[in-house]
Specification:
By secondary structure, the chain is of the alpha+beta class. About 35% of the residues lie in helices and about 25% in strands. The strands form six sheets. Strands 19, 20, 21, 22, 23, 24, 25, 26, 27, 28 and 29 form an eleven-stranded mixed sheet that branches. The chain has a six-stranded mixed sheet with strand order 10-14-15-13-12-11. A five-stranded mixed sheet has the order 2-4-5-7-6, covered by helices on one side. α1 runs antiparallel to α2, α3 runs antiparallel to α4 and α7 runs antiparallel to α8. The longest helix has 27 residues.
Length: about 775
């Protein structure tokens, strides 16, 4: 409350100073409506603030002046000299009382009744009273109001001074160091550090400014929903960057309203559950290192995880197997999925499926995280972790390809070395999968992602980064240091890359970019799937053993494929898969890739595809879930049924089918790097181009109507009535309109005799 009172005193002083000229002008021209409105707004603001701060004398004076000014605005009273003098006297008295409150002295209130009485319509005229001489000297004040923009400039300048100091110290260390300069630099360093701390604190504000509106909001929301809620607020004296406070308002409002609407039950439901009729909502703030933790906890019903899972299944956001594989925490976090709400009905408070995803996105944009602790039937606790300030972050400096980058410390879960006994990286085609103490994580090589040139050294350090939907391993050349850095926005062109969160300038004087973990995951195309953790292998890895990917097929069977044949694993939407030309295919750029699937594919689902290659052709194998990379046993029990199963192997005491990769590629024609050319001599009817060209191209030819310079055709097509020039040695196939040949020497082909045409094309290839 002290901070709010000081803010009220500062605002009132500031308004009185700005209003001084308006009051004098209104006295000279009482009919000036603009100045009358300005004075009215002042006394109205004072009245409202006094009611909140419990200042009855100020409230009484401002209320009386507001009533009179309101009557003047409505035309019920004329602003004569007596009324103007009376209002000016009350404004002067308000100023006196404000100064007295700030200095802690007491003023006699005997004259205030006279001031209010002078506002009456039939009151005797009185002269405007000047403030007593003892009050003309303002109480000793040590506060000043500054704009946030000015504070930002101060902070930016102070940060540049710190960096210049650090650069100076580095340069002196590299050369001959004079002890006298060392002493002066030490004094400068202490002064700069103290000034930096002081300037940083000018941006700090108690979190009470964020919590001040909570009691009224809780009261109104509870009344709207017909519930009784007891509010408990702690930690209002914790300080936070004022910009962070503004950015936290909307997320906090949404979470509190959600707690009252979704969490706390009605009085009847609470009585049936053996709980007090009034629900308890606790909001607290505390500081932990360079982070502020805000807890919003209620003793309501908690998150109905089963309902969330049912809604996710109904909306086909996840498959049944994925939902079953999710941990309790992962199911609880379904609440953050866009469009997913645990409510069946839409109300004015909630139920539209929007909000929680926006809350998390807004918190993560300022470097924070949202954590849930769910106790079904007992309540829900939401913890928001945000940095103390937006301008200074604790970062971890990493190196990739000889360049240094910064990562926000709060987004880093762990740093491990690949050579550690419980850490390994397996390659699936062009992608990597890291196994860290049983947890499998996708690997993103930072140098490769940023297209930074390397010297061929393999990144052997993994930084486990927490992204929005899961964790991933960022492979870097090394971790340099931990450092508190001043973060500033980067150029728009740099930020548009989507992998950077800002820039900084460390003490070496070289600009450095701050990496965005979620942006890197998006840029790398990571798809976080819920998979079971694998146990570490205790036996020694056999280098020469053939490795294979163990997966669960669409029909529920576990199968393996040799790892060497897998180019990559990707996730596509079921809508992208079509049954065309008698088989399933998916478009990959300009190419159509055939797909093998052991069960029907739902159009609305997401499907994992194993992209297989034999070095020439390519095929995709649709699977339900990749499990782990295993060693393929030497002994294979042959399959008696044939088909696409080569045999059965034992993996982890389980019988697993081995897919016959040769059979998969048997009916896939290897594409030719340069398809043969078929020259079409079409007539004006366009029949050859419109009717026959698709058939010829499906047979592996590239059809043209005119040869390029130096190009030759393997075969040429023409109707019998079209004159054809020499074809550079290529075979010429004539087509006729009629079904029967014209004479015994007619070697033309009936234009709709498809088998004869395909046979002629095959002969042209053999001759060529």
């Amino acid at each position: 409350m002290d901070d709010l009172l000081q803010e009220f005193i500062a605002e009132t002083r500031e308004t009185l100073e700005a209003l001084a000229g308006e009051v004098v002008a209104w006295e000279a021209d009482p009919g000036d409506r603009a100045r009358l409105d300005a004075i009215f707004r002042f006394v109205h603001t004072v009245k409202g603030s006094c009611g909140f701060l419990d200042l009855p004398r100020l409230a009484r004076l401002s209320h009386a002046a507001e009533d009179v000014l309101s009557a003047v605005r409505e035309g019920a009273r004329q602003p004569d000299t007596a009324l103007v003098n009376a209002v000016l006297s009350i404004i002067d008295r308000i100023g006196e009382l404000v100064e007295a409150i700030d200095s802690g002295i007491s003023l006699d209130d005997s004259s205030e009744d006279m001031l209010i009485a002078a506002l009456a319509e039939n009151a005797q005229p009185m002269a405007a009273q000047a403030a007593p001489a003892t009050m003309q000297t303002r109480a000793h004040s040590r506060s000043v109001r500054l704009g946030v923009d000015l504070l930002d400039r101060m902070m930016s300048g102070m940060s540049d001074m710190v960096l210049a100091r650090n650069d100076l110290a580095r340069r002196l260390r590299e050369g001959d160091f004079d002890p006298r300069i060392e002493a002066a630099l030490e004094r400068l360093s202490l002064t700069v550090a103290d000034m930096r701390e002081t300037v940083s604190r000018t941006r700090m504000q108690t979190i009470e400014a964020l919590f001040a509106a909570v009691p009224r909001m809780v009261r109104d929301t509870a009344a709207e929903l017909g519930k009784t809620v007891t509010l408990k607020v702690e930690g209002s004296d914790v300080e936070l960057d004022r910009e962070m406070i503004e950015l936290m308002r909307d997320p906090l409002v949404h979470l509190i309203r959600n707690s009252i609407d979704h969490g706390i039950e009605s009085s009847v439901e609470r009585a049936a559950a053996g709980k007090p009729a009034a629900g308890l909502l606790s909001i607290s703030a505390r500081q932990s290192g360079n982070q502020i933790l805000i807890d919003i906890a209620d003793d309501g019903r908690g998150i109905d995880v089963d309902r969330l899972v049912a809604k996710a299944r109904a909306q086909k956001l996840y498959g049944d197997e994925e939902l079953q594989a999710m941990t309790a925490a992962a199911r609880c976090e379904l609440i953050f999925h866009p469009g997913l709400s645990s409510r069946d009905m839409v109300t004015s408070v909630s139920g539209r499926g929007v909000g929680m995803d926006i809350v998390r996105a807004n918190i993560e944009q300022i470097g924070g995280r949202v954590l849930l602790t769910n106790s079904p039937g007992k309540g829900l606790s939401i913890t928001i972790r945000v940095p103390l300030t937006l301008s200074i972050l604790t970062t971890i400096i990493v190196e990739a390809g000889g360049q240094k980058f910064a990562l926000a410390r709060q987004s880093v879960e762990e740093i491990v070395k690949v050579r550690a006994p419980q850490v390994r990286i397996d390659r699936v085609g062009g992608s990597g999968v890291a196994t860290v103490r049983g947890q499998r994580l996708p690997v993103v090589e930072l140098a490769s992602l940023l297209e930074v040139e390397t010297e061929g050294n393999r990144a052997d350090t993994l930084v486990i980064v927490a992204a929005r939907d899961g964790n991933f391993a960022l492979a870097v050349d090394g971790v340099i240091d931990t450092e508190e850095l001043v973060i500033k926005p980067a150029a728009p062109g740099v930020m548009a890359a989507g992998v950077y969160a800002g820039q900084t300038l460390p003490d070496n004087g070289r600009p450095m970019l701050l990496l965005d973990g979620s942006g890197i995951a998006t840029r790398a195309g990571l798809s976080f799937e819920r998979v079971a953790e694998v146990e570490e292998e205790n036996e020694q890895i056999i280098v020469d053993a053939e490795r294979a990917l163990l997966f669960e097929d669409l029909d529920g069977q576990r199968r393996v494929l040799p790892l060497a044949t897998i180019d990559r694993v990707e996730t596509v939407s079921g809508d992208a898969i079509r049954m065309t030309g008698g088989r399933l295919r998916v478009a990959s750029g300009p190419s159509l890739i055939p797909i093998h699937a052991t069960a029907p594919i739902e159009p609305q689902s997401s499907i994992s595809l194993l992209r297989l290659t034999d070095g020439v052709g390519e095929i995709a194998y649709a699977i339900r879930e990749a499990i782990e990379i295993v060693e393929l046993p030497d002994r294979v029990a042959p399959s008696s049924g044939g088909g696409l199963i080569a045999g059965v192997v034992i993996i982890g005491n389980d019988q697993v089918e081995l897919v016959d990769i040769h059979a998969l590629f048997t009916d896939i024609d290897a594409p030719q790097s340069t398809p043969p050319v078929c020259l079409i001599h079409d007539d004006r009817s366009g029949w050859l181009t419109n009717f026959l060209k698709p058939v010829i191209e499906a047979s592996g030819y590239r059809c043209v109507t005119q040869l390029s310079r130096g190009e030759t055709a393997m075969v040429a097509l023409a109707m019998t009535d079209v004159a054809v020039p020499a074809n550079d040695g290529g075979a010429l196939v004539r087509l006729r309109l009629g079904r029967d040949p014209v004479g015994p020497h007619d070697d033309s082909i009936y234009r709709y005799d498809r088998p004869a045409l395909q046979a002629a094309l095959a002969r042209s290839r053999r001759v060529k």
